[in-house]
Amino acid sequence: MKPTVFREGPFHFVFFSRDEPRMHVHVSHPDGESNVWLKPGVEVPVQTGLAARLVYEARYLVANHLQEIVDAWDRNFAGWVIARFTAWPLAAGRTRGTFHAIQALLLVQGRRD
């Protein structure tokens, strides 16, 4: 699943479903692609085929749309951590009470794993 966050000019900003837990967006351009991490700061850890000018432009666009992207991340991945813990085995000595306490804590903190 690749929900589109926004498009601007030749840039297409999407999420890949649960490809890594760190908050980020994928940027596609006819010349190449990159990942852009959103927190703690806007960084480009990986890019393929994009000239430096296009990487700069992608970072600029992400910075200008940062709150929109973060809100979209929260909408798309809100249940991810809970869904992952739902499959957490109870047989390894964990009690159901501990399991529900962890679920509640993660929901309150809004953590993403």
Quickly describe the structure:
The protein is of the alpha+beta class and 113 residues long. The protein has 2 domains: 1-77; 78-113, no CATH class. The chain has helices at residues 52-64, 66-77, 80-86, 96-109; strands at 4-8, 11-14, 24-29, 32-37, 43-48.
Name the features.
113 residues, alpha+beta, five-stranded antiparallel sheet, 4 helices, disordered C terminus
Description:
The protein has helices at 52-64, 66-77, 80-86, 96-109; strands at residues 4-8, 11-14, 24-29, 32-37, 43-48. With 113 residues, it is α+β, with helices and mostly antiparallel strands. It folds into two domains: 1-77; 78-113, no CATH class. The protein has a five-stranded antiparallel β-sheet with strand order 1-2-3-4-5, with helices on one face. Helix 3 (80-86) packs antiparallel against helix 4. It is globular and about 35 Å long.
